[in-house]
Amino acid sequence: MDLVAAKKFDPRRDYYRVLGVREDASKEDVDRAYRRQARKLHPDGGGTDEAMKSLNEARDVLSDPTTRKEYDAERHPKSVAHSLSTSFDPGAASRAGTLKIPVTDPDLAGLLMGAAACFGLGIPLLLLVEMQWVFFLWPLRIMSLGALMLGVFLAHSALRVKRRKLKSVRPDYPRAILVMHELLFWVVAIGLMGSIVVLLYFP
Fold first, then answer.
1. Is there a contact between 16 and 62 (Cβ–Cβ < 8 Å)?
2. pLDDT tens per residue across span 105-153
């Protein structure tokens, strides 16, 4: 059996528009609109059988309180109310763990985690390749070096995000300190990469 026929209405159709009434129209408004539209759409008045059929269907649905309520419910399904516990919360995942570390800045946290993941993957992989040196492992060497470079890039991006947040909160923050942060970052990054190179290639 067709589902629309079983329900006595088609939720995809706008019966209010067919009758030309508002959605809060009373039964009397529906009846008056039906009579007005019927004079225009009746085949004897120049209308068509199909138009009159649609008009009768709209009147039948909107005149019956129960059917109208079911029709409105299917046209405008109620959205699920989101409480504070179900709404998006960037810190929910970290607070759910045992460390109880709230994430106050998702962008910064994501960049730092990405950088840590790149270093955590690149350094051991590079050590493994260099300690077990075989010529055909050169793609892994390139991959590990690429992971380290990406880690430096993500860490620098995290620094830029932190600096941008700091400047938005304190527009008068001394520029000299920001420059020192930048220099310190590159000193640490170059020192770290240099240490890896020295340990691997100049033991």
1. yes
2. 667 677 778 888 888 887 777 777 766 665 566 677 778 778 888 888 8
Q: Where are the alpha helices (DSSP H) in the chain?
A: 3-7, 15-19, 27-41, 49-63, 65-75, 92-96, 106-131, 138-169, 175-201
Rounded Cα gap, residues 117 and 108, in angstroms: 14
For residue 81, tell me if it sits in a domain: no
Distance of alpha carbon 79 from alpha carbon 84, whole angstroms: 15
Among 8, 62, 56, which Cα is nearest to 30's?
62
Number of domains in the chain: 2
83 within domain boundaries = no
Verify that 70 and 151 share a domain, yes or no.
no
pTM above threshold 0.70:
no
Whether 142 maps to a domain, the answer reads: yes
Residue 97 lies in a domain: yes
